[in-house]
Amino acid sequence: MLVPDAPPNTEHATLLATKWLSTSKLAELAETEGLVYKKGKFSAIEEEQIKNAIEQYRTKNELSEEAINEILYSKNDKRDQTFWSEITMAVPQRPIVAVYHHVRRTRHPLGARGRWMPSEDEVLIQAVSEMGQQWEKVSARVGRMASDCRDRYRNHLLDRDKRSTGHWTKEEEAELTRIVTEMTVDQGKDMDNDVFWGVVAMKMGNRRGRQQCRIKWTDSLSKAYKNDGRKPRWSQSDAHILVHKVASLNVRDDTEIDWKLLPDESWDFWSAHVLQRRWMTLKKSVRGWEEMTHQEIMDILRVKKADAPPAADPERRRKGKVARSAEMVADEDALSVE
């Protein structure tokens, strides 16, 4: 069962806010020293904390918006350590390098440019052929953010002459399942979260792109693999469990949820992506949800899902596992409150 975040470790917080640690180094420190840090999408609350921290820094140092932009996008790529450390301290458990890239991406003047046009794709392809995958240089040529250029090229343009579209064949599904399980399950890794999709696409001969492979796996094949080849269907019992699990997190806003942490040994058919989509469906079923706080929505959903649904279909149970019931989740909630 998930528990609220532990009080922040002051030494670790200072480390995260001052040292530009690589992903591999962060993972190493998490294993050897118990370093706790956040990954993934920044929550709405974190966005507000960052915004306020930047404004406070600007006011305290009597800087203009133009001066702040010069710090964010220094022409010589020199990072202002004091600025970035102060901003990072506003979002505990976020590494400074993650805050750096997130802020530069979300405030970038080339952001939110909308749909890519064929002419832009051609410019991007030409730029990569001349400069390689030096995305900042490519960005200047194309007029799009470096991260947008990278994602557009990798997900849609790379090897597009080889790429298949539309319905996946049984042979393709079997091949993708074999590749993912060899890279994860056979090596004791998490099949939903420890996958390098660029490598997967390459192993499939780039006939399907990294994004195609990721979506096919997380939305379809993963749950079938976990259910002995049968594709489970979302049930009212699943909805009941999801509501109770979200309620147990005690978050202030659902953008704070790390959806990868919700599955457990007995309830792990659904990927993080599927759970997030299902939650949004439940949330939008509440009339007037747009004007409500997360807690108000949560209170209504807990009432709507108060009655335990019928027991799960035995066909959805795997050998050696007992299907997790809504009553089990509710009992755990009660214990956590006590």
Q: Would you mind describing this structure in some detail?
A:
It is found in: Nucleus. GO terms for molecular function: DNA-binding transcription factor activity; transcription cis-regulatory region binding. With 338 residues, the protein is an all-alpha fold. The protein is built from 16 helices and no strands. It is globular.
Low-confidence stretches: 1-5, 316-338
> What level of helicity do the residues show?
55-70%
User: What's the gyration radius in Å?
Assistant: 23 Å
Overall residue-averaged pLDDT value: 82
How much of the residues is beta strand, in percent? under 5%
**Sequence of secondary-structure elements:** HHHHHHHHHHHHHHHH
- Terminus-to-terminus distance: 15 Å
The tally of helices reads: 16
Question: What structural keywords apply?
Answer:
disordered N terminus, disordered C terminus, mainly alpha, 16 helices, 338 residues, DMTF1_DNA-bind_reg, nucleus, Arc Repressor Mutant, subunit A, DNA-binding
Quick overview:
The protein has helices spanning 10-18, 23-33, 44-60, 65-72, 81-89, 96-106, 118-131, 135-142, 146-157, 170-183, 197-203, 210-226, 236-249, 272-284, 294-304, 326-337.
How does the SSE layout of this entry go?
Elements: H1 10-18, H2 23-33, H3 44-60, H4 65-72, H5 81-89, H6 96-106, H7 118-131, H8 135-142, H9 146-157, H10 170-183, H11 197-203, H12 210-226, H13 236-249, H14 272-284, H15 294-304, H16 326-337
Helix pairs in contact: 1-5, 3-5, 7-8, 8-9, 11-12, 13-16
Biased composition (Acidic residues): 329-338
Keywords: DNA-binding, Nucleus
GO molecular function: DNA-binding transcription factor activity; transcription cis-regulatory region binding
